[in-house]
Amino acid sequence: xxGIVGLFLKDRRLEANLGRYLVPxxxxxxxxxxxxxxxxxxxxxxxxxxKITVARTAPDGFAGLAAIAAATGSGAPVVxxxxxxxxxxxxxxxxxxxxxxxxxxxxEITAVGHRMEIYKDxxxxxxxxxxxxxxxxxxxxxxxxxxxxxxxxxTVSGAHPFSTGPDQCLVHNGSLSNHHSLRxxxxxxxxxxxxxxxxxxxxxxxxxxxxxxxxxxxxxxxxLRDLDGFYTFVVGTEDGFAVLRDPVACKPAVMxxxxxxxxxxxxxxxxxxLPGIESARVWEPAPATVYVWEHAA
Length: 297
Fold this sequence. Notes:
The chain is α+β, with helices and mostly antiparallel strands. The protein has helices spanning 18-27, 65-71, 93-103, 125-132, 179-188, 198-211, 216-226, and strands at residues 3-9, 36-42, 50-56, 78-80, 83-88, 107-113, 116-122, 141-147, 162-165, 168-176, 229-236, 240-245, 254-257, 261-265, 281-283, 291-294.
């Protein structure tokens, strides 16, 4: 049992309120997942280059981060609690990642992208949101997760969202029954995994499908064919937001849409404090149906 939320702002004038809207959505589902929490926030794109978001897993984890930032031509890291964001030139992206992996054992990379930043930590969702100052974050859309660990350790790397491609991420409530065979196939194709979590496999599967030319909607339609188990997915891309439930749809889900936003929650209470919710169209997403909203590129 975990909690999932998602918020896609159709009205771009509301972007400064994204984090403020998201916090009560996330914390209202703490009972569904008190072990850890995480969010992916799609903010303003960087003028040039790529953002690397990292999480500190040891007290001195950021000790060498400024030196790597200087050596790769990025500005000073922007720190949010136990996370930091570096912006590097495209040409310096791979060298920067290699140096972080090799030289900073107390740091984990959570996201790479032009717009996406991923923040996740162990602990109660309310404490995680406060530490990150999530309420102060802005952007066009975001997805979040509160985790109750059932099959893998409670760690930063095991928390959602999972990102396996630039500006791509996934949160998941459920359990995949064929993730071991999917993992073997993806590893054969060169995919590297950071955890044993089945949700990371689902994220990598979608990344591979989109790398092969499928759009977000078609990649999720392919998942209905290839993924077995019980699942509700909320997926983020640079411009989009998507929801998919398995054909049985035993995991709870509710959505709401107004002229200003589209919102998802594992339970209605996650949506109840959104502005205008009393006049929103509220519905339960249908089984085996792909829902996608995207901003014009």
